[in-house]
Each structure stands twice: as structure tokens, then as C-alpha cells.
Amino acid sequence: MKENIPNQDILNAFGVSGKPVLLTGGEGTCFRIDDVVLKPIQNSIEVSWIADICERSYLEHVPILSSKFIQKMIMIGYQSSLNT
């Protein structure tokens, strides 16, 4: 599988810097940058639904909303969460 490493524009959109490190396991599409995990969006409807739930409740891995706009996150094509 070819790694699709998040580029600098994606890192900037989420306010993170550093070298993306591919996480092992799963589908092999998630990258860790410090305490943030970035994953390509597969389903924009699902991402909107998860963000809505997070706004109303607490989840262990709370998505970081890129500039607080789900639309921008979907446009960028990545979602994120804190690696706690």
C-alpha cells in the first residue's frame, strides 16, 4: 500500500507541525504528529455525524475541528483526533 503522507498544507490546516509518522495496524492510513492523529476521510457524512456528537458530549478521542469548520475538514480530506 502506498502511503499518503499528509502534506504541509494539511498540517497547517490542523495547526500541527512536525514529521508525520505512519501508525501501524488498521488500514495503514493514519499518521501521528506529536499528540495529534490524522486520518484520511472516507465518508464525509460520518465525519459530520461524529463532530455533531462531540459538540454535545465527551468522547475519549475528540476530533480537532480544523478552524472549527467541518466543511473545511471535509474539503481538506482529513479528520483528526488527540492521541491521548
Report on this model:
By secondary structure, the chain is an alpha+beta fold. It has one domain. It is 31% helix and 18% strand. The chain contains three helices and four strands. It has helices spanning 8-13, 44-56, 70-76, and strands at 21-22, 31-33, 36-40, 78-82. It has a four-stranded antiparallel beta sheet with strand order 1-2-3-4. Strand 1 and strand 2 (31-33) form a beta hairpin. The longest helix is centred in the middle third of the chain and has 13 residues, at 44-56. The chain is globular, with a radius of gyration of 12 Å. The model has no long low-confidence stretch (mean pLDDT 75).
Distance between the termini: 27 Å
* Arithmetic mean pLDDT: 75
Assembly status:
single chain
Shape: globular
Taking all Cα atoms into account, the compactness measure Rg is 12 Å
The secondary-structure class comes to: alpha+beta
Major β-sheet annotation: 4 strands, antiparallel
Q: Estimate what percentage of residues fall within beta strands.
A: 15-25%
Lateral strand order in the biggest sheet: 1-2-3-4
User: How many structural domains in the coordinates?
Assistant: 1
Keywords, please?
84 residues, four-stranded antiparallel sheet, 3 helices, 31% helix, 18% strand
List the helices and strands and how they pair.
Layout: H1 8-13, E1 21-22, E2 31-33, E3 36-40, H2 44-56, H3 70-76, E4 78-82
Antiparallel strand pairs: 1-2, 2-3, 3-4
Summarize the structure.
The protein has one domain (8-82).
